[in-house]
Amino acid sequence: ATFNLLLLPGDGIGVETMVEVERIIDFFNRSGRATFNTQSDLVGGAAYDAHGVAITDAAMDKAQKADAVIFGSVGGPKWADVPYAVRPEAGLLRLRKDLGLFANLRPAICYPALADASSLKRELVEGLDIMIVRELTGGVYFCEPKEIVTLENGEKRAIDTQIYTTSEIERIAKAAFDLARKRGNKVHSAEKHNVMRTGVLWKEVVTEVHRSYAPDVQLEHILADNCAMQLVRNPKQFDVIVTDNLFGDVLSDEAAMATGSLGMLPSASLGAVDAATGKRKALYEPVHGSAPDIAGKGLANPIATIASFGMALRYSCDMGAEADLLDQAIAGVLAAGYRTGDIMQSGMKQVGTAEMGGAILDELKKL
Ligand code: NAI
Ligand code: MG
Q: Which atom of ligand 1 lies at the shortest distance from residue 79's CA?
């Protein structure tokens, strides 16, 4: 099969980690497992420097036509004072909005070789493999009214609004149940129906959507605050957690810490399935930012970006077997003792970005 990929390396370490993804794409192309046609473009500060915007219409057009967008990272001190509308992050926000990427998938996987780097005890995290499905385009971060007003008595009042509609909840619930069917067949839906009307509707709609996934997929409702506690008490009880934008932001960062470094964490953001083509818009990116403190030095851990490409194989290219191989290669180099600075442990072999990428490639060739 042939897939069109748009690579948007962006700024800082995004540029360095994307080079390692390109080497892996080359490997898959040469091995005849698939044909990836890649295009690249600028985003973030790099696009601002060249064009005065955080992403051009031409780059957006390429993104609309691609099977998957692989995104590095944007931002840095160089662009601290650029106008708000064209700040580097605006490039990512426009991609999410224009591609309609409403489902944010954040896996929390603990590679056995890194279990001691976790914030939690080894026995709690060894073998951990959970997926947080966060609603990304609605909820309290985006709804109006959103303002700070000064009252007659001089006091200020800040307002944020949370709104969720049936269709918004339905589509994120379906995404979570579909995913669970390919994993451990268990979904926890986290909300706070005890104190929020959006929580009441969330629970109601998720329950309704679940009817067409029962009995093979199991559904449990959990209050979001209890979910936060359970994630540190016994994270392995979870398979898929589906939740709204705000709770998802917090819970996914919490789950991430069970797995070790920011340099290890991939993510995917998915849009609706197009009824005509069966395809869905998708963007894959590491969770970390542009890391200005280490940018340009060849020190960045490329695993988060490489694993993000692995998610693209799985969710946009129907290449689950190859995604598994890539995961095995990553686990293999970690087991062999290769470590970038961010995950360095005593007695291990410290390497830079290119060496880590090269080691993963070598491991892949052996599998
Ligand atoms: P950051 O994720 O860039 O860095 C936080 C710390 O983690 C730094 O010490 C960095 O060196 C380290 N780190 C991150 N990724 C690493 C990797 N792959 N390998 C080794 N070490 C790694 O977050 P920070 O410092 O808050 O933000 C820096 C810039 O990135 C800012 O301009 C921020 O706005 C932007 N940013 C962009 C994001 C994106 O493109 N999606 C997300 C988060 C921040
Ligand atoms: Mg966050």
A: 32
The complex scores an ipTM of: 0.98
Same domain, 189 and 252: yes
Of 257, 281, 308, the residue that ends a domain is 257
Q: How does pLDDT run across 186-237, given as a tens digit for each residue?
A: 999 999 999 999 999 999 999 999 999 999 999 999 999 999 999 999 999 9
Report if residue 32 sits inside a domain: yes
Per the structure, the count of domains in the chain is 2
Does 67 qualify as catalytic in the annotation?
no
Q: Is the peptide bond before 145 cis (omega within 30 degrees of 0)?
A: yes
Residue 90 within a domain = yes
Alpha-carbon distance of 343 to 346, in angstroms, equals 10
Cis amide leading into 215 (omega within 30): yes
Tell me which DSSP letter residue 210 carries: H
From the candidates 57, 116, 225, 274, give the one annotated as an active-site residue: 225
Residue nearest to atom 42 of ligand 1 (CA): 289
Domain assignment present for 123:
no
Same-domain pairing of 192 and 280: no
Please confirm, yes or no, whether 216 is among the known catalytic residues.
Answer: no
Q: Apex CA 313: angle with CA 307 and CA 317, to 5°?
A: 160
State both tokens at 153.
């008595």
Cα-to-centroid distance, 234 and ligand 1 (Å): 28
249 is catalytic: yes
Range(s) of the domain holding residue 139: 129-257
Report the pocket of ligand 1 as residue ranges, CB < 6 Å: 13, 73-76, 92, 262-263, 285, 288-294, 300-301, 304, 340, 342
Please say if 192 is a catalytic residue: yes
Mean pLDDT calculated for residue range 329-343: 96
